[in-house]
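Reopening closed ticket. The problem is back. First fold of the pair:
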Amino acid sequence: MVNRLSEDSAPRRGWRTAALMLAGLLAVAISAALIVSLNTATRQRDSALGWQQHSYEVMILARELDATMAKSEATLGRFVISGNKDVGRTYFDAWRRAGTLLDKLTSETSDRPEQRALIAALRDAYTVRGSELSDVALRTNYGQNDQALSTYYEAGKAPSLSRLDGLLTRIIANERAILDARTNTADDTVALSNRIATILSFVGLIILLCAAWLGRSAWAAWRDRQDEEQRNSELEYAVAERTGELSDANTRLMAEMVEREFAEERLRQAQKMEAVGQLTGGIAHDFNNMLGVVIGGIELARRRITEPAPEVERHLANAMEGANRAAALTKRLLSFARAEPLLPVGLDPDTLIRGMGEMLDRTLGDTIEVIILEGASWSVFIDAHQMENALLNLAVNARDAMEYGGKLTISTADVNLVEGEIAEAPVGDYVRIAVSDTGEGMSAKVLERIFDPFFTTKTVGKGTGLGLSQIFGFVRQSGGGIAATSTPGHGTTVSIYLPRHCGNVTAMADSAEQSDGRSHYTGVVTLVIEDDPRVLNATVGALRELGHLPLPCASAADVPALLREHRDIGLIVSDVLMPGVTGPELVAAIHTLHPELPVLFVTGFAGDVEDPQAFGGHEVLRKPFTIASLGDAVERVLDRANAAQSKAA
């Protein structure tokens, strides 16, 4: 009987097993089909949404282009009425941005032939419209406001305007039609996928019900227990793995937060220094002009008084000393603001530092041992005078930090900076000039503020707080970077990073002793171009004192007439920054008609002349200047001009 039951149950167990396997296979097939269908629908939907987004972007871009051109034309109207050059530049910037938007619109619609044709026509209309508006701007720029206004009104009725509007409208309409078609396609695809998913889900539900009925057997229950145990094991493993991933992600997130906070702090510091620099640069520029008048007046007074009383001489000497100290302070302010004019040349840093050895020994005294370690094989492109001042400032700071003596080490090395190693210094080759001392060092709190203007740790009367900020401005103006490290009780190291120069290197020459400005050149008719009347009078008086014949000119617009009236002009002395035109631009225009005229630029601020090559190789004299330095500069300019004429002959 038992055998009979066993025999009867064996086919039943086989049938159940086969039924379960078949149900499982069908379930897997249905699930796979459902997953594939859903994935296909998702991809098609995402693709359609992406193209819809693209169409929206094209329409927004077209409307932005229309708005930008309208804004540009409105700005041009204000420019025609006001004649303000700044408004004119705003018009030009807006119209140029419209061109940029047109280029982007061309790129975004390059995949559709019907849009490409419209974009090409739009670009032609944009060019025609730009020519019409440029004529209005050009007339306004040359002061023909009435004609410009008439032309502006005519341009407002030009066919190009309606053509631009029509083309933009057609482009947007085409894109909207494409958008509607894509939307319909996406809706149809999603609807079809939903129907297929519904059918497959229904069939799958039936199969699952059958499998559940078959699974009531003992074998199915035992199998379910085994599967449950397996799933629990897999779940525990997945939880542990996910926990590890979350821990790693949290660690990375914390590191990124620290790095971001550090970068934000450096950005805030750079922005603060930039804001203070702009403020001090503007103040120092105006102060420089006033100092030039003061120094010139004091020198002229001392020269005109043949036998001054001791009290008068003492007062004049005190006034000159105060003016010179104010000039030095102004130079530091301009250097910090990166507005001090640089006259860079290619030079070997080791040669420059070696040439400063005697001056450093004399300045620092016998208690400081100076060690120079030459390790740089690359050259740099910098202003040698500013570099010497920077190194001297660092050396004096190091001396003050070593009250009872110590060692000052100046070392050079070739380095390659990576991204973010030195704030605002791009990746590349640099020469590092490090100045190290064995002094008392600084705390981290003090180290954070050492480049702030007017911040100093010295007692009152022993420092202005502008030394390191001046170095900071000079290094940034030279395209480099600066960093400082310090440990209390172990000294400080300030490292200057200057970009590598691959051009010619200029040999360092010994500085000549300062003369009294007297020259074998006298009676030279000199055209003096200066917009500040006080500085103009002071410069004219100094040239007259040197025996020359100055011809004052307070406006660049008067220069052509003066050149025509005075054919005997032998020298031009020009300011750099003037209303409407810079000195280098004015001299370039003069040299087209009078290339033989020698030129001397006089400036105390070079914020708008960033490229030293703009001076065209002419002599540059820094404000405020003495009569002697003016005479020496004039002699150098005339010597160079005579040498060039002799060589040409």
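Second fold of the pair, where the issue appears:
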Amino acid sequence: MRGLGGKVPGSASAQPPVYRRVETGESPATLRCHRAAVRLLVPGRRLRSTAQSTFAFTRAAAEEVGDAGGGVVVNLLQIPQRVVIPTAGRRGDSYSRKEASFARNSSDAIRNNRRKMELLSIILFIASMLPFSASNRQGDALYDMKLKLNASGDQLSDWNQNQVSPCTWNSVICDNNNNVVQVTLASRGFTGVLSPRIGELEYLNVLSLAGNNITGVIPEQFGNLSRLTSLDLEDNLLIGPIPASLGRLSKLQLLILSQNNLNGSIPDTLANISSLTDIRLA
């Protein structure tokens, strides 16, 4: 197709063709048309485009040689800038604007969907990490409890701080969400003290440390165990008063603090626990 580069074959040599830029009121650099409405005249044959899309002739201009049913029949000749040939009137411009608008809307939709997917991925990642994060906090609290109790090398040996979840540890029971709900460590010979961090086990239902040699006081933080139903610290060497904070344990049913060296008066707050069915303090 020599029409894209220089002289058009078959054109008259006596009279050079007169070239005129096809315009529709816009800058020649932005003229557009619908490809299905354009016919191109090439010496020796006629071509009619059929693709349903806007197209452009790069570095080309048009010599208008006649009208063909609403389209423009043209020869293509090389010029120093980009021109897109329009159809007669403004119909091609209407096509191009609709297509440009559709392209912009599609691009915006893709970007918005990408942002939503990225945000969803972040949320899912954070949500997937929450059980492990909770398990780590509970594991840290239990490990601190082990240290404070002066557990020997063979006692609670599987309570490993580097494990993701404490739910596999001996004497620890968890629910289906990996929350620690029961710790039973009766008659193990512990000689240390009670860790205040036990109060961080917010899902704990049962805590039994009876029959050891635990000294020191009952931490005020035990009052944070809002789901606790059973607390058994019987037969230890505990001293000091009964914490008034235990009165906040609204679900407590069993409270056994007998056979210790506790002193002071019984807190009035214990009377607020309507669920108590068994209480032993002497």
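Update: turned out to be a display glitch only; the data is intact. Helices lie at 91-148. The chain has two domains: 15-89, 137-280. Please close again.
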